[in-house]
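--- STAGE predict ---
source: upstream dedup step, 1 unique chain passed
mode: sequence only
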Amino acid sequence: MHIIRACARLHVCLYQSPLVAGADNSAPMLVTGFIVKAISQQTPSPSHNNTFTVELSCQTLLPRGDVIIISGLMGAATTSTTLLALVASTSAFGPAGNQTAQWQQDTGELRLQLQHDVAAHEQISFEFSLLNPYKGQDAPLVSVACLGRVRIWPSEMNTGEGNSAALLIADFDVASISQSTPGALLSNLLSIDVGVGRAALPVGSILYVTGLTGSDTADRVSITILGNVSNFSTPDAVWKQSTGTLSVTIAVQVPAETLVVLEFVMLNGRVPQDSPEIFIGCSGAVTIAPLRMHKAAGNAAPMLIAGINARMQQSSYVRSTPNNLTVTISTNARLANNSIFVISNLRGATPIETTSSGNASQTSALFSRDTSSKSMSDAMTSDRQGALDAWRVDDRIEVQVVWTAGYEVHIKIPIEVFPLEVYRLVFEVYNPVAAQVSPSITLEILGDVPVASVAVRTLPSILAPLAIVSTMDIASISQSTPNTGQSNTISVLFASHDTLYAQDKINITISGLRGAAAPESGWLGINGLSLAHTGVWNKEFGQLVVMVRADIDAGNITRFSFNITNPSEGQEPANISIQSSGLIHLEQVISIMWLDYSSCMLALLTHKNMHNICVATKNSVDKSN
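--- STAGE serialize ---
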């Protein structure tokens, strides 16, 4: 309907008619802006290639040459490039297969230049890929703008919800683990708290814990799991013993920001160990790289298996005499009050000043923390008496030693024993009546935190516990010739006061044969029964070491010989000695074996010295001849 107006001035009537709007962006009051501006991602997994999808639609025509700018993509690990590949639903960004964008990593900015006009309200979409950050983060604020003939100021994009939010990166915000006991061969309840962080764990994800080594639980496909994890997972977990890995399959999506509690029972191993490094990770639709877990302290440290480091030494190596046995102890776990130390195989020892209780004999011992030593090494290298004197008097406690059958003692310790501290236990015994090698002594701990039996380490030679020395009742030596430069057969005979057992790996050592011209150091042939056919010869020190290969009864005379070459010049005879290891014979000088004037004795005795030496040694006739 036309409205008639009167024009007072011209006295003319005009009809109102609509104006013709300009085309495209020239239409009056058309204000440009994005009406669709969405971005989403394919995966929240850290350090994974991530595909982003962008959808845009503008109220105005976007002309060729204008630049669309997406900013705020902070944290992406892809380095800056001018040729970031695109996959677009339109040719506005160039022909298919040849579409690129400019990426600036430090500002998180993506720029795309239009190769063709994009009509108003035309919806366009494109995809591009970036490398996700290596650690978790919240989804950043992402904006879109346009620069060129059409200028659109940056405005916030719709970044989607949940795991599809652009650059939302999954993580664990809590990861801790503890155990119920470090006792060897005990059932151990392991408790895990894991906080599912910014991203949900979808159905089919596998939550796994690795590094649980040291368990005696064999591989199983059905480990019962406890805790609220059962609300989200299948009923059972899978266990792999060799890698210490427990895997749980997610059956119901675990929402973001959920604290998951996982508990399960394992059988501790018998081999002592410190708590290993343990990791938790996730695989499947959401992948989270293994994260080192926070471990509880003390005995609650996961997969800590209690063990003890023990060494023993003695004060006397003489048969049938009192002997102080000193045990130096350090443990990796806290031992409760009234733990019982069981020391086994004190072969040949008998208690001193005993009292009887039933069928057992009782003596006493001293137990204390060793304040003089910072480590087991310090304790074993320090002077024994000096170390004992360094004990604080108030620290020393007297404990009962109960002797049982089979050379075994039980010692109840009424105080707690703390990890990494050094302790000493001293008790007195009567030494065995016969010489012997140090027996293989073991230590086991009974109580709330049991420790499996371990071998007690010993100091060498006469300090080794219950190593009782023997003597050579007979030890003689002779040679076949005193002539310079000639082959000389050295003959040795000996008789031990105690039986030499081959199983004790006994070595007979002859020392003092200095000056031989040959052979060079190395293996040397031996003639004789019960000994190895070769010995180890050291020319520089004139020393021969021969192993006993068959048992030699006490008092039996054993003969053996070997060949060397006399020196080219005369020399005075040396003191030649014999000793043994294994069953210890302390070093003693070998007597001269009188045979005849031409073999007057002592290896390497040369002709020009022979007369004087023979006269001096004529009365040293070996009684076996």
